[in-house]
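Quick one: structure tokens for this chain, please?
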Amino acid sequence: MKRVILCPNPYRDKGLSAAKAAESILKSVGLSTVYCLPFRPEGGDGQFGVPLRPLQQELRGSDLVVAFGGDGTILHLARAASMRGVPVLGVNLGSLGFMSDLEAGELGLLKNLASGRFRREKRMMLDVTVQREGRTVYTGSALNDAVITKGAMARVVRLQVSAGEDRLGLFCGDGVVVATPTGSTGYSLSAGGPIVEPTARNFVISPICAHSVFTKSFVLSAAGTVTVSPAELNRKQVYLSVDGGKAFALRQGDQVRVSRSRYETELLRLTDKSIYDILRTKMTGGIGYEK
């Protein structure tokens, strides 16, 4: 490690205080740093008192991105970082932070970057497209999930779900989540889906508020393509959201196609925390588990 991008979410890292503390630690062990923001905040860039550089430009010559915020900050950075092959280290300033390795009080561990005392963890990503009358009208990528769900009106939607040439069935309810193993602890888990080892290579398909006692989640190989199509819309509204991003309105006859991306997000780890440690600590408070 020689050059590190400090990428704080300005709404989580007030005054960039955590990022500035990290800068001091990294410089003390001989690493150079640069500040980039994951998105442009209200009020412009001049309010933070540090020089800010364009993220896409800085990714070309950097060895690591340190994301200060919650999982949403990492999701926001995942596509750009993965396309440049730059790993991401998360510092959790949010509530849960399943993907982040460090908490705010563990910044001292950043010194280990200079001596190479870290491990790399690759996470599968999704490519998501929408096909409409033979044309691609939407493309996106996801580290967590693609969610196809109803609009605000309280009507059941019917979604035809297939894996390759095999029809999984007609899912009736509020929608469907197609998640990666990383995303299995997100919306998919809230919808009743299973927890999957985050470094696995699977699709996790979970119905949202299914109107059938027989509709269950599926865990499938990531070798093929999952297709989700609205069975009937009429006056119903159905939307696609990729990693919690802006909703894309689907039309009758659209096909949402989800496949494994050739890109992967590489997360850097400075601690020995496992996903099970994180789940036990952050979702149960340790209740019911022996350490």
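The chain has two domains: 3-118+270-283, 125-263.
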